[in-house]
Amino acid sequence: MTARLALAASPLFLDHAKPGHPERPERLVEVRRELERTSLLAEFTPLSVREATRDELLLAHEAAHIDTVARLVADTPVMLDEDTYANEHTWRASLCAAGAAADLATAIMRGTCDRGLALVRPPGHHATPSRTMGFCVFNNIAIAARAAQAAGVGTGTCAGATPRIAIVDFDVHHGNGTQDIFIADPSVLFISLHQYPLWPGTGWFDATGEGAGVGANVNIPLPPGAGDAALKAAFARIVLPQLRRFRPDLLLVSGGWDAHWRDPLAQLQYSLAGYAWACRQLVQAADELCGGRIAVMLEGGYDTEVLAVGVANLARALAGRDAQDDPLGDGGMGETNAGALLDRVVAQWDAGA
Ligand SMILES: [Zn+2]
Pairing state of beta strands 165-169 and 5-8? Predict the structure, then answer.
């Protein structure tokens, strides 16, 4: 059966901008151009985009955080923190990014579509319960996970009362905000693959959760230069076994293409082919574990060609196709051996972390 694909996107996400900043509207412009060029866009049904409600923001954030952002954006342009800018359109874009993510996840949980993609800005995975961080205002994927849990209760797709959500974050930076929001929550499994050391400095593998959430936080801190070999080994040895152990009702993905070798912000050195392989693995895992229910939320990725082709490859994976495009190759980079690091992560989990 052909998967029913949904796309949450809107021109209003282009209005959030600061000249010269790497998190720029052209990222989405180039993605859309590539999805049109490849005719992939026509395979997705558009979702209408609306602002998240205050109650939805409160699913992941403290009231003081929402109020602080609302106060600061009253006088734009302004920096919300050392990295995160706001202009006069940022408040609306941020609310709509969270609303789009929540609507996509709930539509999948309710069965009105099977798989989906949220092409939103600003990104979300660094936003913590109490503050903006790293270009992120509100944590879109965390709000989506909580909204999906609320929507999924009683739908018949879940064995228990609270749907189990797995979040895989393959952005090159650690998803510290998502980790913080779910650190003590056993109903949400968070798995982050990221470069370490790298900003924001969190994400070592010994952070496995707190309280009832111990065992539901999986960090895979890969060394600079790790490349596709480490990505594939990390999936085979940790990501896929952890997903099978957890058995989610819905798989959410923080998609960041800044681990590519040509990205200007980091040095993990994946190729587009490696990324495409990972996307297919996640779609197959959703098919195996949770009725094919998977939604991807856009996070980082600052080389626009890499991002555009990478998202197109993701769209092909969501459509169930093995085809992929990689005009850039592997960059001729040597690959750092991450085997010893992965051995330590596997040993920790085998010991019952
Ligand atoms: Zn990133």
Answer: unpaired
